[in-house]
């Protein structure tokens, strides 16, 4: 049978995948089609519903449930031959109950045994040495004021737990002894550890201070400790009475002063300031600061061996005894409780009141919870790692932590979730369906184990061996007469009247023997949804079957619901949903706005709204819409609303839906259960308010749910039962009201700082005292105490790092100042959420470094590298995302940590002073020399120009008359040529004169670099020292500056060469050349040069070169510069446009050639920003440039124009601002 179900499940998933491409979510923008309406009476006679009367078919099989094994049942098979199978009595299994030390069941006053826990496996999480705990035998524990847990072990020292890891302390760190019997945090935040034989240790977060009998302590065995209202610490000793420590000295009180005994194993206090001291055989003492009042068995105490004393909120004092159970003391009388009252055991070691007001007792045979009227106990059978419990502590979120003898520490997450499996008596671990009958019994249909009845104390299982139709039970209902109906996988449907099973199958007219859903309408008719056969109606006398032939949306019916108008709704996993009013089917699919056609579940909430579970999300149909549909009003738009993972659901596969009594909607998915508030108003779109998710990711024992009818079910007590697809959790009992919710926001703290990815023992950098906290921190950081050499190396590595002090418990340096070489920092942080730290989210920011807060993260570390010099503040905040009350789920106030990063030495103020002095000392002589040379040069040039002009005037005068008319015609041209000639002469003169000092700069900077290399070689021969290192650094900086001087001198030299070339003009020889090949070569060279340079851009390069051009006379070397200059300018212009317009702009460069007869046309066109008119006429002038700073010389286009004129060609520029620029060159075919 299990194999059959698994096969069906695989087929179901394959079917889902096949349909997935056809399914679309509901959207108001999608086309809407009115629902299909099919009148059954209007159908042809051949497809009218099939009706089968019981009077015309074999009688249903009836089997009386046997009371004992040994019976048989015979029935005729399809061939008429009788088959026989054995009948067995139902299987019954009692849940575990409390027993005494002899194994006898303990019963209450009504004769009922005490059920252990909630009957199943509770939510316990165990921590052991595998998780880092020092030892699995744990004697005592406390929660400190920072929200962290401390566990004292029976020989392994102390363990501190911060929610992520354990930190262990032993005698190696300075603890007085490794067997810890008691722990106390005083009002100053110090942690005290009472040892067996070593006295007591005080830990201030830095180091241990130990006190023994030599210091005045009454005895070196410390069983217990308590702090009084004055801040004095009292120690219960193993023979020295009690010792009071006032911070300076010990005062000892013994039996001579009236103390009940000199061996004190427990201490306590009440809110009036009285102290209590429990002995190991004489009762206990109450001390008011002056006198002792003693109590023992003669006063009514349960036992004279007092192991625990605790006052609860009501003011009563609970006393845990060894052997007598517990006593509740109201100041006058004792009320005693023992195992006969339901207490787990009579050796009570610790008593604690939790945040809900329950009182807990740690015993040698388990733990017990007292609610004021009864005890509920938990043992290993409910998930505890061991039965012997020595201490209890509660954390800030209300979770309980139990210290066990040998089992480590166990955390109890409350009684909200309890799991039941075959071990507790359920028929099979896969529970498909659930029902509560009128007697309050719960029935669980399983996938192969039949059906199990649960009465709160035992499971009784019925299967085919008792007469059930089959052992797979998909659906269960109770009819109006109190009969139970079970829809089975393969056997049809069985009716159970408490004594016998009556089975109906296809032989009696049922449409299919796989019955997935059952419902009874208000007329008493039963409706059976089947796997492939549609739905059968049974009125007690006949079956009437409806399929897709009669208008049903599909033939695989997983859910049936009757609405408030009496209409029946059918969920078809193969076709959507149908509403049947007895006459017609109205069908809804994705075409009408349904989120998905694969519908699994239907449920009605208290307001009459319908919730629809599908394979691809959750659908919603309001009661108002249902009434409109029922009234037959015209449907013009979608009624449906849809929800999925986008709205917060854990998964879109919706398997179960349960409207809860508290106006919550519980939705079971493939990835756990979601709870949200039922909507108050459905007139508009509404969110899933107060959504909570319960699954393995949020720390709860549930993941995927089963898909039978009522596989998730709320009973009459408000408990939610859910069948899961996991053998470990099987059936889950979920008490939503018992959830432990955080009542406080988490506290954020810093755990560790790492510099340059290295962990540091901070005390090792500043402390010289070997007995200080230095050794303790080194042990916790490195796992050992550093040697002197290792410590000195650590100090040397982090030399220059400064801080004032470190914080206790987690050493974080305060007022931290980092040298620039240590400007990489890692900050580890956390919170005091101990039970579920993975549900805490964080955000952080480093002010001065980050612009915004980080994304919301669950990571608990932040890394910042290459931090520039300055002051910084790190802020981190947290919030808890699990179940919380009030503001407990809100963001905390940010925790701050500030530090400073110093500049590197070469960016300090004194370095800049040196740079300024060096610069001035180097530049002033050069400036004077160059100024004098320039003055002399200019004077000589002026003299030469005057002489030249005089000669020209004289020549012009003698020829003036002859050339008068000619000069008039060429006057404008001569004026321009004169200007250019003068400019060329000036350029040549300036270039020649500037080149001399440039040669001086270049030669002497190169020579200086060689001198520095020689100095560095000599320094390498010397012994290393800090002073030499500083000299090296300074020489390195000077070397860098000289390199830059030489670089820029070379650049100026290049400019001068360009000026000389411009002034001289080209003089290369003309030779026939293939113009197209020259253009191809140098356009590609320019393009790849641009791509290899900084700031490359993407350009669509188009060459349109006319084929068959003849070779023309070219100075190829000069003409290549024309192509390079024009394409380079085009790339620069398009890069500028990309920077202004953005990435949507697509750069394009076109180069074209065309035969014009006696000339050849060359065009270079880009789609850059264009050239304004006021600039266009200046483009060919020497030294004119549109580029910024030193990016251009202004000679490129001027040289280009000269080269073109040298080839007897012409250059034209056309442009449209913002769109394009085109350079057109015409060159004659002959020279």
TrEMBL record:
It is an enzyme of class 2 (transferase). Residues 936-980 form a coiled coil. Keywords: Coiled coil, Membrane, Phosphoprotein, Transmembrane, Transmembrane helix. GO terms for molecular function: phosphorelay sensor kinase activity. Pfam families: HATPase_c, Reg_prop, Y_Y_Y. It catalyses: ATP + protein L-histidine = ADP + protein N-phospho-L-histidine. Gene3D superfamilies: 1.10.287.130, Histidine kinase-like ATPase, C-terminal domain (3.30.565.10), Immunoglobulins (2.60.40.10), YVTN repeat-like/Quinoprotein amine dehydrogenase (2.130.10.10). InterPro entries: HATPase_C_sf (IPR036890), HATPase_dom (IPR003594), His_kinase_dom (IPR005467), HisK_dim/P_dom (IPR003661), HisK_dim/P_sf (IPR036097), Ig-like_fold (IPR013783), Reg_prop (IPR011110), Sig_transdc_His_kin-like_C (IPR004358). The chain crosses the membrane at residues 909-927. Residues 989-1231 form the Histidine kinase domain. Its EC number is 2.7.13.3. It comes from the Bacteria. This is histidine kinase. It comes from Algoriphagus lacus.
């Amino acid at each position: 049978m299990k194999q059959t179900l698994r096969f069906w499940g695989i087929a179901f998933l394959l079917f889902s995948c096949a349909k997935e491409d056809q399914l679309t979510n509901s959207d108001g923008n999608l086309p809407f089609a009115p629902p299909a309406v099919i009148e059954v009476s209007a159908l042809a006679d051949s497809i009218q519903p099939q009706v089968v009367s019981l009077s015309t078919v074999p009688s249903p099989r009836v089997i009386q449930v046997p009371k004992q094994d040994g019976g048989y049942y015979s029935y005729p098979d399809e061939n008429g031959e009788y088959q026989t199978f054995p009948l067995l009595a139902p299987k019954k299994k009692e849940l575990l109950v409390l027993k005494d030390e002899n194994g006898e069941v303990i019963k209450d006053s009504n004769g009922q045994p005490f059920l252990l826990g909630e009957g199943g496996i509770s939510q316990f999480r165990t921590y052991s040495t595998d998780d880092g705990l020092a030892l699995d035998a744990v004697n005592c524990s406390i929660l400190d004021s920072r929200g962290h847990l401390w566990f004292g072990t029976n020989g392994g020292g102390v363990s501190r737990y911060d929610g992520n890891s354990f930190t262990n302390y032993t005698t190696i760190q300075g603890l007085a002894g490794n067997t810890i019997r008691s722990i106390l945090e005083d009002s100053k935040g110090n942690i005290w550890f009472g040892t067996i034989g070593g006295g007591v240790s005080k830990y201030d977060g830095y180091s241990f201070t130990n006190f023994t009998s030599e210091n005045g302590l009454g005895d070196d065995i410390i069983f217990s400790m308590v702090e009084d209202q004055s801040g004095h610490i009292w120690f219960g000793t193993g023979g020295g009475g009690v010792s009071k420590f006032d911070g300076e000295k010990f005062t000892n009180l013994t039996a001579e002063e009236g103390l009940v005994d000199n061996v004190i194993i427990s201490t306590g206090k009440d809110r009036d300031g009285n102290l209590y001291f429990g002995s190991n055989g004489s009762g206990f003492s109450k001390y008011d600061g002056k006198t002792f009042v003693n109590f023992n068995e003669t006063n009514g105490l349960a036992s004279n061996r007092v192991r625990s004393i605790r006052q609860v909120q009501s003011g009563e004092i609970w006393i845990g005894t060894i052997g007598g159970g517990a006593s509740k003391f109201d100041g006058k009388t004792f009320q005693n409780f023992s195992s006969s009252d339901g207490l787990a055991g009579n050796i009570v070691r610790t008593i604690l009141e939790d945040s809900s007001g329950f009182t807990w007792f740690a015993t040698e045979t388990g733990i017990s919870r007292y609610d004021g009227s009864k005890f509920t106990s938990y043992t290993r059978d409910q998930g505890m790692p061991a039965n012997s419990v020595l201490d209890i502590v509660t954390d800030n979120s209300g979770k309980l932590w139990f210290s066990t003898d040998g089992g480590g520490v166990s955390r109890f997450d409350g009684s909200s979730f309890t799991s039941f499996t075959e071990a507790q008596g359920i028929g099979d671990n896969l529970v498909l369906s659930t029902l509560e009958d009128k007697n309050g019994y719960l029935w669980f249909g399983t996938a192969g184990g039949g059906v199990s009845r649960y009465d709160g104390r035992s499971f009784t299982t019925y299967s085919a061996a008792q007469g059930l139709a089959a052992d797979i039970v998909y659906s269960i209902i109770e009819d109006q007469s109190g009969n139970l109906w079970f829809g089975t996988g393969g056997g049809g449907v069985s009716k159970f009247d408490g004594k016998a099973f009556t089975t109906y199958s296809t032989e009696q007219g049922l449409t299919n023997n796989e019955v997935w859903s059952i419902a009874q309408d208000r007329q008493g008719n039963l409706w059976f949804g089947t796997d492939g056969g549609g739905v059968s109606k049974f009125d007690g006398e006949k079956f009437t079957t409806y399929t897709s032939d009669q208008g049903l949306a599909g033939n695989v019916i997983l859910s049936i619901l009757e609405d408030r108008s009496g209409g029946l709704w059918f969920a078809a996993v193969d076709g959507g949903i149908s509403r049947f009013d007895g006459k017609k089917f109205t069908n809804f699919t994705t075409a009408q706005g349904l989120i998905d056609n694969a519908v699994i579940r239907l449920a009605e909430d208290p307001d009459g709204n319908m919730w629809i579970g599908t394979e691809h999300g959750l659908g919603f149909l309001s009661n108002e819409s249902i009434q409109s549909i029922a009234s037959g009003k015209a449907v013009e738009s979608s009624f449906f609303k849809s929800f999925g993972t986008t709205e917060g659901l854990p998964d879109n596969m919706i398997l179960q839906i349960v409207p809860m009594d508290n106006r919550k909607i519980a939705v079971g998915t493939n990835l756990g259960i979601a709870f949200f508030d039922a909507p108050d108003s459905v007139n508009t779109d509404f969110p899933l308010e107060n959504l909570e998710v319960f699954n393995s990711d949020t720390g709860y024992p549930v993941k995927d749910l089963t898909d039978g009818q009522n596989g998730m079910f709320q009973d009459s007590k408000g408990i939610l039962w859910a069948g899961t697809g996991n053998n470990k959790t099987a059936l889950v009992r979920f008490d939503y009201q018992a959830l432990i919710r955080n009542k406080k926001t988490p506290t954020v703290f810093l755990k560790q700082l790492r510099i340059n990815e290295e962990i540091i023992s901070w005390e090792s950098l500043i402390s010289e005292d070997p007995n200080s906290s230095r050794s303790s921190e080194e042990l916790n950081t490195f796992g050992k105490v550093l040697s002197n050499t290792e410590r000195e190396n650590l100090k040397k590595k982090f030399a220059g790092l400064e801080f004032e002090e470190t914080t206790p418990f987690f050493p974080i340096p305060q007022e931290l100042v980092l040298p620039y070489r240590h400007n990489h920092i890692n900050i580890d942080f956390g919170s005091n959420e101990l039970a579920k730290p993975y549900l805490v989210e964080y955000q952080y920011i480093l002010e001065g470094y980050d612009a915004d807060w980080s994304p919301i993260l669950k990571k608990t570390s932040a890394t910042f590298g290459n931090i520039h010099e300055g002051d910084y503040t790190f802020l981190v905040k947290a919030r808890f995302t699990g179940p919380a009350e009030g503001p407990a789920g809100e963001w905390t106030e940010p925790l701050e940590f500030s530090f400073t990063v110093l500049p590197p030495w070469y960016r300090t103020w004194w370095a800049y002073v040196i740079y300024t002095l060096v610069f001035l000392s180097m530049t002033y002589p050069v400036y004077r020399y160059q100024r004098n040379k320039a003055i002399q040069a200019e004077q000589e040039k002026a003299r030469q120009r005057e002489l030249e002009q005089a000669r020209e005037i004289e020549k012009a005068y003698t020829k003036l008359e002859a050339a008068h008319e000619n000069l008039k015609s060429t006057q404008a041209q001569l004026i321009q040529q004169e200007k250019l000639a003068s400019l060329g002469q000036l350029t040549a003169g300036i270039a020649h004169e500037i080149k001399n000092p440039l040669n001086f700069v270049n030669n002497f900077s190169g020579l200086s670099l060689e001198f520095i290399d020689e100095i560095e070689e000599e320094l390498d021969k010397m012994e290393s020292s800090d002073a030499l290192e500083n000299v090296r650094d300074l020489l390195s900086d000077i070397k860098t500056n000289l390199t830059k001087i030489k670089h820029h001198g070379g650049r100026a030299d290049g400019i001068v060469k360009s000026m000389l070339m411009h002034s001289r003009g080209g003089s290369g020889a003309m030779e026939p050349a293939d113009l197209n090949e020259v253009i191809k070569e140098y356009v590609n060279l320019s393009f790849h040069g641009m791509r290899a340079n900084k700031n490359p851009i993407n350009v669509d390069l188009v060459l349109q070169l006319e084929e068959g051009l003849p070779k023309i006379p070219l100075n190829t070397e000069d003409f290549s510069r024309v192509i390079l200059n024009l394409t380079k300018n085009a790339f620069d212009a398009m890069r500028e446009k990309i920077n202004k317009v953005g990435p949507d702009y697509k750069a394009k460069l076109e180069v074209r050639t065309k035969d014009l007869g006696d000339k050849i046309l060359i065009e270079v066109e880009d789609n850059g920003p264009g050239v304004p008119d006021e600039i266009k006429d200046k483009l060919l002038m020497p030294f004119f440039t549109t580029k910024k700073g030193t990016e251009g010389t202004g000679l490129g286009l001027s040289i280009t124009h000269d080269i073109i004129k040298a080839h007897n060609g012409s250059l034209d520029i056309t442009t449209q601002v913002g769109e394009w620029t085109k350079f057109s060159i015409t060159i004659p075919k002959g020279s």
